[in-house]
Amino acid sequence: MVIGLVLTLTISTMVARQEAVRRGVTSGNDLTSNAAYVSYLLDQELRSAGAGFSQAVASNYGCTLLVSRDSSQLLPSPGAFPTPFATVPQSPVLAPLMVFAGAGAGGSDVISVATGNSGLAEAALSVVPGTAAAGQVRLTNTLGVRGGDLVLVSQPRAAPPLNCMLQQVGAGFAGGSAEVLTFGGRYGANVINGVALADFAVGNTTVSLLGNVTGNRPRLQLLGIGANNTLVAYDLLQLTTGSQALAEGVVDMRVRYGVATLPLNPLPANRTVANWVAPTANGYTAAALRAGTAAAQANLQSILAVRVGLVLRSDLAEKDAVTNSTLTLFGDLPTALRHTFTVPTGTTTQRYRTVEFTVPLRNVRFSR
């Protein structure tokens, strides 16, 4: 009987240990899979930032977005954006990528990213001077433009604020030799936030093709950490209604800008990342980049890459602590650029993982 009890105890202990190891391996594999998925997802969202409007930096970078949908003003937003983006300014400006430091849950960063998706041309189309009027503008030609396209009407200004107006090409429009581009549909509007389409009749007004309301939609999004450690996206144009949960288990997100030395080399092929800066650095805060000045546009144009650091956590809690009390992101950068994540009390029994990756902003590199 004694021998049997000893064998039973031994076997039970071995089974318990094996089960603990199995749970740990499964938890680690789940973290690895989740980290790979989130990294891929963010890389896809950020890599094409600036597409469709980066060939008219003076007109588009830093301009205040004026958007109407169904005859109601959408941007600037009449109210605060939903959580976790409630502290993001209600009047977003157009920029390939911008970071709102500490604006997300737990002091995490919020990323604003804008990507056109026209698939036709990246060059801005010049509007014939003096032809912007209610419901239309005149171009030298409208080749490739079709009904339902979303376009950006903008112009450089001698002084801020810069404004740019989103318009929708009228249903049934077929571009070609026709010079008059007519607007209509859900996103068509003549006056938004006190600015009229006719106000763009003076100056070097341009039209940038962003995409279409169906199929190849543009993506103007906010990305951040929401409740329950969820990576959340919010579509500023509301082509996708409400906030969208993208991934679970993400507890922190931090970003560093990879910037080129100013003034920029006129040859895009020679533009390279000279150093990394935090989104709290002088000239690179969200407030500074939103200023609409020539200096703000130059700084936006100098951001050639972003380095994203994530902290992920498993759901499974172990019997003993398996995580250190602090984790470090960007450990290979200078001390001032590193970020220390403090593991919340009582969660050191859960497995954590840090992930870092760099995303080049190819459209910004070739911007003009």
Automatic annotation (TrEMBL):
UniProt name for this protein: Type IV pilus assembly protein PilW
Species, as recorded: Pelomonas aquatica
